[in-house]
Write a structure and sequence with these properties.
Blueprint lengths: L3 E2 L1 H5 L8 E4 L2 E4 L11 H6 L6 H6 L4 H7 L3 E5 L23 H25 L1
Parallel strand pairs: 1-4
Antiparallel strand pairs: 2-3, 3-4
This protein binds protoporphyrin IX containing FE.
Protein name: Cytochrome b5 heme-binding domain-containing protein
Organism: Pieris brassicae
Family: Belongs to the cytochrome b5 family.
Length: 126
């Protein structure tokens, strides 16, 4: 059974020797990972004892990083202390991003409108 932590309990795990972070309501002990973290030890230490979900997702960690963090899982946040899980930002995928007429029109409309006004202005004044 997973160990259950309150956020207050995790907030006490903020030293270099005892550093825990919360990502998506799961608690990770990163004390032994500080020096191995490719993003450096500081970001982890700055977030020790706190919820680091936003930072973790904003960095856009790879699938490897997501799998790697499971090695450090020590428990979960108590149900009454859980926060809404943040969705990772959608990856921009050229292969699945379709070009549409309305998308093209969104981009072309302002310069076309400007050109039309300029031409009409020229005809009217000259
Ligand atoms: C147990 C949790 C974590 C694991 C296993 C982990 C793992 C990794 C890995 C493998 C990378 C290399 C890039 C990649 O593969 O995505 C990385 C980069 C990085 N991580 Fe983490 N990370 C964790 C938590 C965090 C947290 C909580 C933060 C922010 C507070 C953070 C900030 C960064 C930054 C800034 C980089 C460098 C990105 C770059 O150079 O572009 N990481 N991390």
């Amino acid at each position: 059974m997973a160990k259950i932590f309150t956020r207050k309990q995790v907030s006490e795990l903020e030293s270099k020797e005892n550093a825990a972070i919360i990502i998506d309501n799961v608690v990770y002990d990163v004390s032994g990972f500080l020096e191995d973290h490719p993003g450096g030890p500081e970001v982890l230490l700055n977030n020790a004892g706190q919820d680091a979900s936003r930072c973790f997702h904003e960095v856009g960690h790879s699938e490897d990083a997501r799998a790697w963090r499971e090695r450090f899982r020590i428990g979960e946040i108590a149900a009454e202390d859980c926060w809404e899980v943040l969705k990772p930002p959608p990856a921009f995928d050229v292969a699945t991003t379709k070009l549409t007429w309305s998308g093209a029109l969104d981009v072309l409309a302002p310069p076309l409108l400007f050109a039309a006004v300029a031409v009409l202005g020229y005809i009217y004044f000259f």
